[in-house]
Structure formats: C-alpha cells, structure tokens
C-alpha cells in the first residue's frame, strides 16, 4: 500500500502555494509570503465556534508580501475543488478585504488585509483600538449587515463569516456581541 500524496492548495488570489497552519486546533491554509489570505475548509469551519475569541490571532502575523494583493475578476477557482468558481460575498479595495465561498465544498477564502496591518503595526493602544473599530464598522455593519439576512442560507453564511473574524481577531479589538446580535438576529 502506498502513502497518499496530497496536492498542495494554490492561492486563488496570487497562485502562491498555501501553507497549512494550526491555531487552537483549527487548520487554516495561509498564503504565506504572498497576499496573506486564508483558506478555511468546512471541517475547520465547524471547529471555530467552539474556540475562544481571538484563538486564531497568531494567523494575522503570517508574513505577507507588499504589493501582491490584487482584486482579480470574479472568476477564480476554489483551491480545494480546483474546478469550482468561488462566489464572492464582498470585498473592499480600501481595506484589502475579501470574503469568497465555494458552493461545492463550502470552504471560505478570506483576505483580512488591513486588519493584520492594524494589529501588527507599532501603534499605541488607543490608536489600534480606534482603527480596529473603523475596520469592523465596514466589515460588520456595511458588509455583513448589507447581506440579505432574511434568507436563511445567507444568514448562516453571515454567521460563519463573523465567526471567522471573531476567531482571527483578538477579543479586545472585536465588536461587542450585543452589536453583532442586532445585525444577525
């Protein structure tokens, strides 16, 4: 019997080879030394709600290359399925932020862009909190809040997206749960 060969996953943004990272028992494939995006498979996504807020914050320090981030057209392939086009939920050029999902395997492609910059920059604590608050106003209020949340499937997707950001962001910088509950009723 031969050992099964695993084909490396390719970044849908910059075609870099994705590197698996384990944070708090959750495996995330990161675009190390590339755009800095994350591929989160469905089995890993199921583990995230059980983790403490910020348990995956170490992933925000995965090295990114300057100038690699690009907003490509909407036609890019799922790194796992390799034959399914990812559905773009939303993006922001200003925040270098993007959230896509595969309709076939249910994995998420997430590029957090400026969040990593905010949390790793040499800023005083007050300025870091102010910038994180501004970032999450766009992510939660505008992007997640702008989704068609009356549709049950879209609401579930929005909850997954919020859980991903909650997992990645240290607790002290993530929005208050009361505010989130107003959006995700």
Mind explaining what this structure looks like?
By secondary structure, the chain is α+β, with helices and mostly antiparallel strands. The protein is 31% helix and 15% strand. The protein is built from five helices and six strands, in the order E-E-E-H-E-E-E-H-H-H-H. It has helices at 42-47, 114-120, 125-144, 152-168, 177-183, and strands spanning 19-23, 26-30, 38-40, 87-92, 97-101, 108-111. It has a six-stranded antiparallel sheet with strand order 1-2-3-6-5-4. The model is unreliable at 1-5 (pLDDT under 50).
Gist of the model:
The chain is α+β, with helices and mostly antiparallel strands and 185 residues long. Helix content is 31%, strand content 15%.
- By DSSP, the count of extended strands is 6
Task: Categorize the overall geometry.
Answer: globular
What does the largest sheet look like? 6 strands, antiparallel
Number of helices: 5
Mean of pLDDT: 87
Helix content: 25-40%
Low-confidence stretches: 1-5
Radius of gyration from the alpha-carbon trace, in angstroms:
16 Å
The end-to-end distance, rounded to whole angstroms, is 51 Å
Percent of residues in β-strands: 15-25%
Structural class: alpha+beta
H/E topology pattern: EEEHEEEHHHH
Largest sheet: spatial strand order: 1-2-3-6-5-4
